Amino acid sequence: MDGSLAPSQIRTACPHDCPSACVLEVEKLSPTRIGRVRGSAAYDYTAGTCCAKVARYAERVHHPGRLARPLLRAGAKGEGRFAEIGWEEALDRIAAAFRAAAAEHGPEAVWPYHSGGTLGVLSRWGIDRLRHVMGYSRQISTICVTPAQMGWKAGIGAARGSDPRRVAEADLILMWGGNPVSTQVNLMTHIQRARKSRGAKLVVIDAYRSPSIEAADLGLVLRPGTDAALALALMAAALEAGAADRAFLAQHTDWSAEVEAHIRGHSIPWAAEVTGLTVAEIEELARLYIGTERLFLRAGVGFTRHRNGAATMHAVSCLAALTGAWAKQGGGAFFYALDGWGLDTRLAWASDRIDPKVRVLDQSRIGAVLNGERDALCGGPPVKAMLIQNANSAEVAPDSHAVRRGLAREDLFLAVHEQFLTPTAAFADIVLPATTFLEQNDITMGLGHTALTVAPQVIEPYAEARPNHAVVQGLAARLGAEHPGFGMSDVEILDATLRASGQGGWAEAVAAGFLPVPNAIPSGAAFEGFPQPDGRFRFRPDWPALGPYGGEMPCLPSYWQKLEWAGAETPFRLITPPARSFLNTSFTETPGSKKREGAPLLRVHPRDAARLGIADGAMVRIGNARGALTLRAMQFDGVLEGVLALEGISPSAEFPEGIGVNALVGADPVAPAGGVAFHDIAVWLRAAG
C-alpha cells in the first residue's frame, strides 16, 4: 500500500485517553465540516480500524451544544448560568486573578490543572509551560495508570514492554484485566490474527463477564482485587510441573531460593477460595500456562485500580518472567509504553524551567487540595486560582462530593477551557471554548504501541473556539512569562520538538502519519535483558524507591490484602469498568453513544437480587459513607455473588442525586506512588423507595 489518500481524505490521529492513539483518515466535506472517520491501514498497528466512538466523531465536532464563545459566571457556582464576553476580557480576568492570588499567597497559590481529555503532546502538557515559568504549583498526574505503572516498573524496570504487534505470533494470549473488545479494537485485530493464523488461545481474566470474556476461548471471572492470588497459584503450579525456565531465571532475574519457597506456598485450592474461581477453572488455565511456550501477557489497567493494585500488577508481571516467555519467539509481555519516547520537551513543556523546590500537588487528591487539607497542600498555601484543561473533575475525580465542595468555594477563582458545559465548567468563573483535535495540530504518544502519531489540523475551529496552546500563549503575554515557546505557533513548536528529538520535522511527520520509536523491549531471540540497572527482572521489588507509600508494601510477589473490604454495613464490592460507547465522560453528550449506552444499569447477581427482593429492572440505591446513588438494577450472572458492576461514568444528570458514581470512590492514595482505587468500593444495596 502506498498510503495515498483521496483528495477529500485527511490523515490525522486520535488523541483521546486510550492507548491505541489511532492513525485516522477523516473525510473533509468543507473547511468547517467532516464526514466519516476511519482507521488508517497505513500504520499496521491501527490496521484500518478505529472505535465506533471516533468513527462517529462528526456527532461530537458538530454537536449543537458545543461552547462557542467565552462565558462569565452570572449565577451561583455550579448553577451553570453565564453571560457571553469577549476573548480579550476573559483572558484579562484570568490573568488578573492569577496575579492577585500570587501577590497574596505566593505563586504556588495558582494551580494549572490538566488531565487526559486529550493526550496530545502540546494540547495536554503544554499548560506546564505556564506552570514552570511562573513557579505555579506543579502536578503529579496519578488519576489513571499510576498503580499499574508502578507495579510494572517494580519488576521490569520501566513502563515498556514487548512490541504489542508480536501478539499476532503468540500461541497463548493472556489478556489480564482488560476489555479490548470494548476499549481497544486495534488490539483485538492482532489477537484475531493470531487465533486465525496460529490457532492461538485467548484467555481473558476480569471481575465481570465483559464482552472480551464472551469472545475468549477461556474467560475467568474472579473477585475484584484478588488477581495476584491467581497469578501466584499459576506460578506455583508451573514450579511443581517443572515448567519454570531455570536458565532464564538465573541469567535475567533476581530469582532465589527464598522467592521460590514463597511462591510454592500458594496452592490452587487456596487461590480458588480467595478468588471465587473453581479449582477446575484454575487448573484449566494452569495447563495452558504451563504447556504453551509462546505466551504473550497483555496486562490491562482495570485490575490495578484497587488499593493493592501495584502489588497485583507486579505479581501478574512475574508470570512471563517465570517461564522465560520474553525470550520465546512470539512471547513477551506488554502493558503501556509510557517510557522511552525520547522527546525533547524543553519547548513544548518548558521542562528546562522546572524548579524542584516548587510543591507538587496530587491530581487525584483535588478534593482534598481544594478543601485545604494540609497534607494534600504539602504544607503550602491554599489554592486560590486554577485553569483546568482536558479534565471534568467534578465527575471523574474520586470523592466527587469533596471535589464539588472545593470547586464551589467563593474564594477560588476557576477558569475552565472546555468543548461543552460540563459539570466542572458549571463551577467556573470564566469558561473558554476549546477546539477538538480536528481543529488543531499536535502529536500523540501511542501508549498502546510504539509510534508517535501525527495529528495535523483538518478543519477550521468552531465559532470562537481556541486550542489550549493559544490560551497558554495569551495568558503568558499578560503575565509577563518569558520562554521561547510562548512566541511560537503550534506547528513551530512541534517542528522544533521533533527535530530536537531526532524525528525529522513537522512536514515529514505529517506526510508519514506516524513515527516509529524504538522503545520496545526486544523479545524472542533478540531478548537481552530488562531495563533495570543490572538488566534483571525483580521478583523482589524495591517499593520505597518507587514512591512515598512504598514502605508498607510486601517485598515478594504477594496477594496483598489491602482492599476496601465488604463488611456488615457495606457488604457488596462495586466495580465500574469502562462503557463501550463512553470514554470516561467524553462522548456522553453525543447522540450515538447516548443511544447505545442508555441509562446507567447496576449489574446484580440473581441470587443477591432474590435475597434482597430486587426485581429485574427495579430501582435501587447503593451507597457508603461518601454518598448514595439511585439507579436501575439489572440481574446479571456475569458477576460473582457479592459483586456489583456499573459500566462507565454516566452523566450526573442520569442520577436523581445529581452526582455520579465517583462520589462513592475514596481518594486515599494507592501505594507506592498514588493513584485512585476506582474499582475498590464497598457499598450497601437496597431497593429504592
Automatic annotation (TrEMBL):
SUPFAM superfamilies referenced in this protein's UniProt entry, alphabetically: ADC-like (SSF50692), Formate dehydrogenase/DMSO reductase, domains 1-3 (SSF53706)
Keywords: Iron, Iron-sulfur, Metal-binding, Molybdenum, Oxidoreductase
Domain 4Fe-4S Mo/W bis-MGD-type: 7-65
Cofactors demanded by this protein: Mo-bis(molybdopterin guanine dinucleotide)
PROSITE patterns: 4FE4S_MOW_BIS_MGD (PS51669), MOLYBDOPTERIN_PROK_2 (PS00490)
Protein family membership: Belongs to the prokaryotic molybdopterin-containing oxidoreductase family.
Protein name: Molybdopterin-dependent oxidoreductase
Species this protein is from: Siccirubricoccus soli
